[in-house]
Amino acid sequence: MNLTGLEREITRCRRCPRLVAWREQVAHEKRAAFADQDYWGRPVPGFGDADARVYILGLAPAAHGGNRTGRMFTGDRSGDWLFAALHASGFANQPTSVGRDDGLELHDCFLAASVRCAPPANRPTPAERDNCLPWARGELDLLARVRVVVCLGGFAWDAALRLRADLGERVPRPKPRFGHGAELGGERLVLLGCFHPSQQNTFTGRLTVGMMEAVFARAREVAEQ
Q1: Predicted confidence (pLDDT) per residue in 29-75, tens digit
Q2: d(CA 213, CA 63)
Q3: What single DSSP character describes residue 150?
Q4: Is the pLDDT of residue 1 over 90?
Q5: In the chain, what are the domain boundaries?
Q6: Fewer CB within 10 Å: C terminus or N terminus of the chain?
C-alpha cells in the first residue's frame, strides 16, 4: 500500500451512516455562493509531502470548504489562516488555498483530519472519530519520517493521543491536557497543541497570527532534533 492507494480507500469509505448522509446532502443542496460548482461530497484524504516530518491534524472538513473542494482547509476561512502561517513558516509555497488545482505545495509537512467527512454542526461523535482513526494510522505508517504531530484543537489532541497509543507509545496518566503550545514528548511522536484557526478563535483574538506561527516554528525545531 502506498499513499495513492490509501487515498483511494479513504475516498470510498462509508463507515458512518450519519456522516455519509450529511456530506452528500450538503453536496447536493450546496451553498448559494457555490451553486455553480461541483462539490466533492466524499471523505477527504490527507495531502502533502511524502517525506514530511510534521503531521498536522485538524478536526474535520468544513461543509462548504473541504467537503466542496476535496482538500482539507481549502476554500474556507480557517484555511486562510492555516496556509498563511504555513507559508510564513516555510512549510507551504503559497499563502492561500482555494482549490485542489491551485498550485499549493506543502514542504516537510502533511495535512490531515481526525474525521474525514464533514459532520453536522461540525461536531463528529467519538464513535465517528474512532471509525476514522485507522486512516490517520495508515498515513503515519507510510510517512516514516514524521516526528511531530501538530494538533489543531482539543478534538485533534485527543485523537492524536489515541494514535500514539495505537502505535505502541505510552500515553501518560492522567491524560495530558490540551492547550495552545502544549507539548508532549515521545520516542516516535511529539504532540504540539495549537488552537484551531476557526473564526470563533481568530475573530476574538484567542488565536493570533504570531501564536500560530510560533507553533510551527517549534514544530520545525523539534523535527530537526
Answers
A1: 999 999 999 999 999 999 999 999 999 999 999 999 999 999 999 99
A2: 26
A3: E
A4: no
A5: 3-223
A6: C
Residue 158, C-alpha cell as written in the block:
485527543
Grid cell locating 137: 494510522
Q: Are 46 and 111 in contact (CB under 8 A)?
A: yes
Q: What is the pLDDT of residues 137-166, one digit of tens each?
A: 999 999 999 999 999 999 999 999 999 999
> CA-to-CA distance for 216 and 152, rounded, in angstroms?
11
Residue with cell 458512518: 16
Beta strands 109-113 and 47-48 are antiparallel
Query: Quick check: helix, strand or coil at residue 111?
Result: strand
Class of domain 3-223: alpha beta
CB-based contacts of 98, cutoff 8 Å, min separation 6: 69, 74, 75
DSSP state string for 28-71? HH--GGGTTS----SPPPPEE-TT-SEEEEES---TTTHHHHSS
